[in-house]
Amino acid sequence: MPVSVPVSNGERHISDGEFAQFQGLLRRLAGIHLSPAKKALVCGRLGKRLKHHGLTSYGDYFRLLTGGQEAAELQIALDLLTTNETYFFREPKHFDFLRERVLPARNGKASLRIWSAACSSGEEPYSLAMLLAERLGAAPWEIVASDLSTRVLERARSGLYPMERARNIPGSYLKAHCLRGTGRHEGSFLIERSLRERIRFLQVNLNEPLPRLGEFDLIFLRNVMIYFEQETKRSVVQRLIPMLKPGGHLLIGHSETLNGVTDGLRSVSPSIYRKE
User: Fold this and answer.
1) Measured between alpha carbons, how far is 22 from 59 in angstroms, rounded to an integer?
2) What is the distance of C-alpha 193 from the center of its chain?
3) Distance between CA 7 and CA 233 in Å, rounded?
4) Could you give the domains of the chain?
5) Mind listing the pLDDT tens digit for each residue in 231-240?
6) Which of 45, 106, 198, 234 is an active site residue?
7) Which position among 12, 113, 147, 222 bears the catalytic label?
8) pTM of the complete model
9) What is the average pLDDT across 221-233?
10) Helix (H, G, I), strand (E, B) or coil at 252
């Protein structure tokens, strides 16, 4: 019988049993499956919280989270465990699709509505906003951006990023919609206020009944379902389909697929699906 070796963070160790507790918690609250390979991630992201509370084990921290008295700490733990890497104009073929296929087909009257349904720290909705501001001019458009993590939503609302994160933003967009930081913000850039105000940021858990947000022309749900088990994928997509307008599109990550997930959407190209 193989012997498991606990993962450590300084002097603290997480056992298989303790890790299983966090696996179950994250699956129940966020629909995310933590593979055993994520033990080091759990230690790295939660270790400081143990130190903050003066705890000596991950089991003690789990009991703190689930005791019913620490809702704020539970949100902190969820924020730390669900934050994913993103960047401006990630997977550019999706932006090409919006620019070359969706926008030219608009009648110019109805407002274009886009939902960035797992917006993380805001790079995706701001990329979309730059493109729409450039291409639609005075035509109406709206972006809703949501995430489970309150911590990354605060960062997204601020619109302030380290300068190195600007490398994928086209020069014309950077000049038109971003301000270079000075003084204490040296080495950073700020999304221009008028663009920030066009985006509505809110917390949404995709694994719970969704708020009434209306119908959207496009929903971006990219690089999220890779963390979901198959049944969770089905449930999430079934919640999203009614929120797409007829003819609207759902865009997922290039490494993801809806094969076996739903028959309610038609594949337009890899990672892009259309509601008939």
Assistant:
1) 9
2) 22
3) 30
4) 7-82 (1.10.155.10), 92-274 (3.40.50.150)
5) 999 999 999 9
6) 45
7) 147
8) 0.85
9) 91
10) strand
